[in-house]
Design goal:
By secondary structure, this protein is of the alpha/beta class. The chain has eleven helices and 15 strands.
Length: about 350
């Protein structure tokens, strides 16, 4: 009788342990996201949030996400990172350059948590960096702008003078001058990522200077709205912004962060994640030109899509020599391709861009 009871208790214990094991194994991977702006900015943070939603949907319940929006690039970001780590998120994505030092600090305190910083360059054993090759999108928009501008003057509403933004202005100009060598580009810096009022003022100032096609490296649709109001042309940046100015909207550089988020969370779940850098572009499906407006002729769209296909096939790189800086000095010889290392620290303008890089 005693032996029978022991066997029964043993069986119950084994079943209980098995149930706990299965329950633990079925728990979804928790991933946290921190955004610089509101998810409704229709730009950068909106694109990241679309990627988060795509990740959760495609995971089939294997990944559970949470996000915190409008987090300033201050000590407050450190508090948010710590809170997400303490709540059991196994991977935390910081989506703005200015979060870098705060994330480095928090990553040291939580060595078992994976931290991923967008657009940064500092790494550690549990800290990686990731980005989309936004300059490829800027280059494709430039091709359209070069074909569509009547006055050969382009304008860019620029956020903060870091290599990422300088690189995008340069790529936009190179794309435009590849189809129209007479093109020049002017930039006005607003020193913020998201401020619709400042973005609008900068757009209007560029229009007053004769710029008839505008691009932006800011997050709201204010530039497209200003272009619509003043009868000039503009582009969606990071997402489709056509609903804010259908007549002005030529096309959009669309970002798909979801492909990167899936790659990272798959690796974390499988235990194969390693620190390093992910920098994906058209080839990997992370950026595309889309949502062409009615003002774009079929032949212009065809050229832009041909450039997109060449980027996807690795047959084109926007920064291929010969290239000159704005002083006319050759910085890249014919046939050479500017390296990723050089692109990541770009701090000068190419030929065709007017004005100086702010210090």
């Amino acid at each position: 009788m005693l032996l029978s009871r022991l066997k029964t208790l043993t069986t119950v214990a084994v079943l209980a342990v098995s149930s706990l094991t299965l329950a633990h194994a079925a728990e979804p991977l928790k991933a946290g996201f921190v955004y610089i702006g509101p998810t409704g900015d229709h730009g950068w943070s909106y694109a990241h949030d679309q990627g988060r939603k795509q990740l959760e949907e495609q995971s089939g319940g294997k990944v559970k996400t949470t996000f915190v929006e409008s987090v300033p690039e201050t000590a407050d970001a450190e508090r948010v990172f710590r809170d997400l780590a303490q709540k059991g998120n196994k991977v935390i994505f910081a989506t703005s350059f200015g979060y870098m030092n705060q994330m480095v600090k928090v990553a040291k305190a939580f060595p078992k948590t994976v931290f991923m910083h967008a657009t940064g360059y500092k790494t550690a054993a549990n800290l990686g960096v990731y980005d989309v090759r936004t300059y490829e999108g800027a280059y494709m928009l430039g091709v359209v702008a070069g074909k569509m501008s009547k006055g050969n003057k382009l304008g860019v509403v620029a956020s903060i003078p870091i290599p990422e933004v300088i690189r995008n202005i340069n790529a936009f100009t190179l794309g435009a001058r590849s189809v129209n060598p007479k093109i020049t580009t002017r930039a006005i810096w607003v020193n913020t990522w998201f401020d619709p009022g400042k973005e609008r003022e900068a757009a209007l100032a560029l229009i007053s200077q004769g710029c008839d096609v505008l691009m932006q490296n800011t997050d709201s649709p204010a530039v497209v709205q200003a272009a619509q109001e003043k009868g000039v042309l503009a582009f969606g940046w990071d997402s489709d912004m056509s609903k804010f100015g259908g007549k002005a909207h030529l096309a959009a550089s669309i970002l798909n962060w979801g492909v990167i988020y899936k790659k990272v969370t798959d690796d974390v779940a499988a235990g194969t994640w390693k620190s390093g850098s992910l920098w994906w572009g058209v080839k990997e499906g992370a950026v595309n030109i889309d949502n062409f407006g009615p003002a774009v002729p079929a032949d212009v769209r065809k050229v832009a899509e041909e450039r997109r296909d060449a980027l996807k096939a690795d047959k084109l790189h926007p920064f291929t020599g010969p290239l000159k800086d704005q002083s006319g000095k050759v910085f890249l010889a014919a046939g050479k391709v500017y390296s990723d290392a050089d692109l990541l620290k770009m701090n000068f303008f190419v030929e065709g861009v007017q004005g100086n890089v702010p210090k």
